[in-house]
Amino acid sequence: MPAKGKHRRPKSSTITRGFVAAGTGGAAIAIPLLGATGAHAVEKTAAPTAAPQQVVAAAKAAPRTYTVVAGDYLAKIAHNKNVKGGWQKLYKDNREVIGEDPSLILPGMKLTLGAKSAAKPATAKPAAAKPKAADTREETRASRSAAKAEAAPAQPAAETSGSGFTAPVSAGVSTPYRASGSMWSSGYHTGVDFTASSGTSVKAVGPGTVVSAGWSGSYGNEVVIKHADGNYSQYAHLSSLSVSSGQSVSGGQQIGLSGSTGNSTGPHLHFEIRTSPSYGSDIDPLAYLRQHGVSI
Questions:
Q1: Assigned CATH topology for domain 173-291
Q2: Distance of CA 56 to the CA centre of its chain
Q3: Domain residue ranges in the chain
Q4: Would you tell me which CATH number, out of the four given (3.30.300.30, 3.10.350.10, 3.40.50.1580, 3.30.930.10), belongs to the domain 62-113?
Q5: What CA–CA distance (Å, rounded) separates 245 from 250?
Q6: How many CA atoms are closer than 13 Å to the CA of 233, on its beta-carbon side?
Q7: Distance CA 233, CA 292 (A)
Q8: Rounded CA separation 195/171 (Å)
């Protein structure tokens, strides 16, 4: 019989203790490890990844620029360079560079395409130091030479008739006078169209005085000249002007370059002869030139 009052504590199995210890130890170790792993994952997730995208976006946002060359006009540049919004958008973005008249752009101007130009209007340069007497004489002679060079026409004057009259361009007629059609507000063509490509020299048909030179709505860039006989010649859709209002011109003198400004389907010269400077007083322009000895 077993002895009374004596109780032997059963020994725990070594394997069981080892399992429990391992289990306990494993739990104690596993929890920090799992926690550390989770924290590491969070750090990786929170790492910034937008920097490369920002660099790409900045590169895409860089504006393009274009340098104006002879014969350019805003509609042509906007078309060739695929400017969204057309010449109006191009002018709005570059108004500080171009100025008040969208039809007058000069070679060398740098235009921003598709974005607002950051260019500022040119400021006056500080006055240079006053030269010495000997330098003044040399400068005066140089200035006179430069003035003579500027006064010379940009291109040779066309051959004129004995009366001093000539054709406005060296080109054929594409649309005759009085051609009928709904495209004209008067119901007919009030002048003649010459097939002049953009940048062609346009000449005054005879001696006279410039009464207007600038933008004129659907006619775009135009020049109107009053002649000695009281009639007026009009030159429309020009890409650039070479004269200003009040200036005296001779027959064959360049007054501008042909283009496609205003309400125009393409580069050409619209030419009229009028009995007054205003629209609606037109007469046959080719008959007028022939009366002045021009073979056309």
A1: Glucose Permease (Domain IIA) (2.70.70)
A2: 26
A3: 62-113, 173-291
A4: 3.10.350.10
A5: 14
A6: 30
A7: 13
A8: 6
Q: Could you tell me whether strands 208-215 and 248-249 are parallel, antiparallel, or unpaired per DSSP bridges?
A: antiparallel
Question: Which residue is it, tokens 């946002």?
Answer: 61
Q: Assign 251 to helix, strand or coil.
A: coil
- CB 173 within 8 Å of CB 194: yes
Torsion sign, CA atoms 245, 246, 247, 253: positive
pTM of the model: 0.49
Token pair recorded at residue 164: 């001093």
- What value, to the nearest 5°, has the Cα angle with vertex 291 and ends 287 and 296? 60
Q: What is the DSSP letter of 236?
A: E
296 residues of the chain, pLDDT tens digit each: 554 555 555 555 444 444 444 444 444 444 444 444 444 444 444 445 555 555 555 555 567 899 988 667 777 888 889 888 888 888 889 888 887 667 667 778 889 998 887 765 543 333 344 444 434 344 444 444 333 333 333 333 345 556 789 999 999 988 888 787 555 455 678 889 999 999 999 999 999 999 999 998 889 999 999 999 999 999 999 999 999 999 999 999 999 999 999 888 889 999 999 999 988 889 999 999 999 999 98
Structure tokens at 141: 């002679």
